[in-house]
């Protein structure tokens, strides 16, 4: 598995897209810092970008990579290799190289700007950790979709739909249900609602760290109590980890049974 | 000529004799402030030398000047009120007053002025207090350069730093108040001037107005107070150039206006408050040249607010610029700078060509269902805000700034 991971990783490292992705984040980081001149403000803006773009790129890239390397995969399948290690190796290769682009691309400008001397370092690391989590989650979901769909167009369609659902439509449904049930106590529902969607979960985590919690009023107090403590932080990371593990589990299961 | 001179000299001598100095110290003939006051005649000066004086219930009932040299400590030993002024023309200067008694039935103060005029309270340092300086039914006084440092933990058993009650024409300047319940509290106090004070870390309000009219407060700094500054049930108050900062918490605001009419709010800065100004039932107020920076809500309008005008203010990077809970709008927004403005200015006259709508749909939703705030900064919210901006359905459609400025106003 490690060998395949290495090959996928080097393959991606050589590919143009990784560099474009890295360059995009580098540019974003530099522009944000020099336009804003305020590290914590820049972290908020970055959060907006990360919770939308990272899942999108993760899904698209994952699906694209799977379909592109299909022939190579078939070649590998002819070898005496475990199926799970082939697919997991590829998945990890994509996810790791994407998160590396993210972390390097954003980390370098921030370090140059003097992150280590700033108090925003914890917010920033949280941002990068959630960004990496999101990459792992959405690449895994993309691999699932690609494995289940032979048809490329269909695969891409589902991938984009998935992103659309989790990034936008889910929030819409969430909002509607909060408004419809406004006569009932909603704090539990909103807690569960945020836990179920990785994008919402990451957004809430970062927002609460940035002390927007005071805006949240009474609900904020509950959220702060939950997410603000180490206990809540651990629970949230476990939830994110489950979001990574479940799709990976399905990749393994699916790849074992699939005909090529 | 010579005769006149002698006569004048005689008068001068008489005056000097009349206004005596009485010194108080541990080795002097007079060792307590109380006995010094007993011995003193009207218009004498009592000089208190450095040392610790364990006294309480000191009543100044003659027009005296009490001056402390090198901050002598008046220790009330938590037994009750320390100094009470009941005479006109009293000056108290340079004392260090500590350990005021706490009571649930009486408002013990470090220094109370009762029914007197023309008093002057300056350069005091108060610590471990219940109430600090309590002005009761007294007029025409000055309170300046005092430092009040409390250790209040809970609202019900703590008092206020400076309290004016049924007192008019009082000047409160250059005081520093921290860690008490209300920093400065005015109740039925008219025509007062509150200037250049710093009020921080108080449990409840930095400054609190109740039923007080025609007052001016300017150049004060209110920082990190439990709830901010509350101005309630008062008329014609002028608020100039104050700074409201970091009043951050679930029930905090920079300033609360409740039942305020005909006030002027000019040149103030509101930075990093949960709510910059919370307005309720306030009419005919002029908001001009204020800065609202990095607040959760810059202005939250709760209702029954009519004929207010918001002109030439800067709204910078607030999560919500304005929140409204009704569809009716009778307030005017004109020529403000909004950092969230996305319009253009073709003729380059500094005024945007597209009107700006300060109320977002999301802030309307949050007003209705507070729990929805959890979706703040979600992409979906941005999309619905955008569509509401294009064609308003839920927010008041006449609530707009027709002349939004394209550059931050600097004055």
Automatic annotation (TrEMBL), chain A:
**Recorded superkingdom:** Bacteria
Q: Which UniProt keywords apply?
A: Membrane, Transmembrane, Transmembrane helix
Q: Where are the transmembrane segments?
A: 20-36, 42-67, 88-112, 124-147, 159-181, 231-252
The protein here is known as ABC transporter permease
Q: Which organism is it from?
A: Seonamhaeicola maritimus
Automatic annotation (TrEMBL), chain B:
Q: What protein does this entry describe?
A: Nitrous oxide reductase family maturation protein NosD
Stretches assigned to the Carbohydrate-binding/sugar hydrolysis domain: 48-187
Q: Name one Pfam family in it.
A: NosD
Repeat listed as a keyword: yes
Q: Which UniProt key words apply to this protein?
A: Repeat, Signal, Ubl conjugation pathway
InterPro entries associated with the record: Carb-bd_sugar_hydrolysis-dom, NosD_copper_fam, NosD_dom, Para_beta_helix_rpt-2, PbH1, Pectin_lyas_fold, Pectin_lyase_fold/virulence, SCF-Subunits/Alg-Epimerases
Pathway listed: Protein modification; protein ubiquitination
Q: Which residues belong to the signal peptide in this entry?
A: 1-19
Please indicate which superkingdom the organism of origin belongs to.
Bacteria
